[in-house]
UniProtKB/TrEMBL annotation:
<dbReference type="Pfam" id="PF00148">
    <property type="entry name" value="Oxidored_nitro"/>
</dbReference>
<protein>
    <recommendedName>
        <fullName>Nitrogenase iron-molybdenum cofactor biosynthesis protein NifN</fullName>
    </recommendedName>
</protein>
<keyword id="KW-0535">Nitrogen fixation</keyword>
<dbReference type="InterPro" id="IPR000318">
    <property type="entry name" value="Nase_comp1_CS"/>
</dbReference>
<dbReference type="GO" id="GO:0016163">
    <property type="term" value="F:nitrogenase activity"/>
</dbReference>
<comment type="pathway">
    <text>Cofactor biosynthesis; Fe-Mo cofactor biosynthesis.</text>
</comment>
<dbReference type="InterPro" id="IPR005975">
    <property type="entry name" value="Nase_Mo-Fe_CF"/>
</dbReference>
<dbReference type="InterPro" id="IPR050152">
    <property type="entry name" value="ChlB/BchB/BchZ"/>
</dbReference>
<dbReference type="InterPro" id="IPR000510">
    <property type="entry name" value="Nase/OxRdtase_comp1"/>
</dbReference>
<feature type="domain" description="Nitrogenase/oxidoreductase component 1">
    <location>
        <begin position="19"/>
        <end position="425"/>
    </location>
</feature>
<dbReference type="GO" id="GO:0065003">
    <property type="term" value="P:protein-containing complex assembly"/>
</dbReference>
<comment type="similarity">
    <text>Belongs to the NifD/NifK/NifE/NifN family.</text>
</comment>
<comment type="function">
    <text>This protein may play a role in the biosynthesis of the prosthetic group of nitrogenase (FeMo cofactor).</text>
</comment>
Length: 462
């Protein structure tokens, strides 16, 4: 059982974490025809927008209420009203999703009250567009906290008890640590058993790198408002990651049975999901899945020669940290250092003596003597100083392409992740060359154009 500690430094050095409002807007990007709106200064939104654009290499729709000194002091009612009306006029989204920032939270803006007045005043103008608000102060919590708060807000706003259940409809509440490729893999796993998955949010339909037929100023696909409302009629809901426990509990409160998986990376974790799908569908696992499972077992046998005994330092959000650390541990590696961004019940179960809520400087200091640094792209300088390889995971990864298509869940994803980790170690093995073996004295002298005079054995011609 890991001990969870807090860094006592007065400031963050090379920050590891990202803010709650950015996590909330990231969740809103997984909704169809939606415009995320940060209630704060232009700088708050611009920073998050640039970070996501560099990570996904895609256009990211995101707006701001553009608070300044005067509006911050007097209150942001006018800014929210103007922003909502402009968004409705120019983009006409199905949903305007507002996330607060530290600026407006410190001021104490009553956004729910503002929206009540705005809806009453502009009911006709705003017809056809829903508005949802989530409180996400960025001076507490981190990225996955904002995502979790956004999903809970969506469920609270749009999900009401249903009279009937739709047979075969399976809701999925994915955590922020899953990539669009991960969500696509989960979808295919569920569909393999003849079930119909509904993912909320669904980044696999909005940030998977596809090119739309027509330009749209809002999100390019994702879960619709109908999908969100339809969660109440699901036969069962699968939540992925401890961060989604609150959202799952909200659904259980309206009568929807839920199962929470703390991770889907690893053999036992995927087996548990497959067992649940077999029970829900009444069907056995198809031959294709059995073959994938066999491939994963073989990958584990091959990979343990390269991962076993290796010391790994990991810096990531709690749920991603737990998934990666658990796999490293199962492959015989040692999680020698673990640093995360925010508190979570899952941290005590990370297979390492202690987990620190800190920054990348903390991770670098604890990674001395390790064989691998595992974190996002901001860890590249630390890896260079430590002279160890960097394995990129999480957000942001602005110095690589294809981050949205990294797969680490299910049998196939775990198999590929093992191969990537093992190949990282193989690529950084010392390659022996001629200089690794000292030449005999006579050969060295001959190579230098001279002749050795000591310890030379005479050659007698035959």
């Amino acid at each position: 059982m890991a001990i969870v500690l807090d860094s006592k430094k007065a400031c963050a050095v090379n920050p590891l974490k990202m803010s709650q409002p950015l996590g909330a807007c990231y969740a809103f990007l997984g909704l169809s025809s939606t415009m995320p709106l940060m209630h704060g200064s232009q700088g708050c939104t611009s920073f998050g927008l640039v970070l996501l654009v560099r990570h996904f290499k895609e256009a990211i729709p995101m707006q701001t209420t553009a608070m300044n000194e005067v509006s911050t002091i007097l209150g942001g009612m006018d800014n929210i009203e103007q922003a909502v009306l402009n968004i409705k006029k120019r983009a006409n989204p199905a949903l305007i999703a507002i996330a607060s920032t530290g600026l407006t939270e410190t001021k104490g803006d009553d956004v729910d009250g503002y929206l009540h007045l705005i809806r009453a005043k502009h009911a006709e103008t705003l017809a056809g567009s829903e508005i949802v608000y989530v409180s996400t102060p960025d001076f507490v919590g981190a990225f996955q906290d904002g995502w979790a708060a956004a999903v809970k807000a969506l469920i609270a706003a749009f999900v009401t008890p249903a009279d009937t259940r739709v047979a075969g409809r399976i809701g999925v509440l994915p955590g922020a640590h899953l990539t669009p490729a991960d969500l696509e893999e989960v979808r295919e796993l569920i569909e393999t058993f003849g079930l119909h998955p509904v993912l909320v949010p669904d980044l696999s339909r909005s940030l998977d790198g596809h090119i739309p037929e027509d330009f749209t100023p809002t999100t390019l696909g994702g879960a619709s408002l109908g999908d969100i409302r339809g969660l109440a009629a699901c036969e069962h809901v699968i939540a992925i990651g401890e961060q989604m426990r609150g959202a799952a509990e909200r659904l259980e409160a309206v009568g929807v049975p839920c199962t929470l998986f703390d991770r889907l990376t690893g053999l036992t974790a995927t087996d548990a999901l497959v067992a649940l799908l077999m029970r829900l569908s009444g069907q056995p696992a198809p031959a294709r899945l059995k073959r994938q499972r066999g491939q994963l077992v073989d990958a584990m046998l091959d990979g343990h020669f390269h991962l076993g005994g290796k010391r790994v330092a990991i810096g990531a959000e709690p749920d991603l940290l737990f998934a990666l650390a658990s796999l490293i541990h199962e492959m015989g590696g040692e999680v020698a250092a673990a640093v995360t961004t925010t508190h979570s019940p899952v941290l005590t179960r990370v297979p390492t003596p202690e987990v620190l809520v800190g920054d990348l400087e903390d991770l670098e200091l604890r990674a001395i003597g390790c064989d691998l640094l595992l974190t996002h792209a901001h860890g590249r300088q630390a890896a260079a100083r430590l002279n160890i390889p960097l394995f990129r995971a999480g957000i942001p990864q602005f110095d690589r392409i294809g981050a949205a298509h990294q797969l680490s869940v299910g049998y196939r994803g775990t198999r590929d992740l093992i191969f990537q980790l093992a190949n990282t170690f193989i690529a950084h093995l010392h390659a022996h060359g001629p200089d690794d073996w000292p030449l005999p004295a006579e050969a060295r002298a001959a190579a230098q154009g001279g002749a050795a005079t000591e310890n030379v054995i005479p050659i007698i011609p035959v």
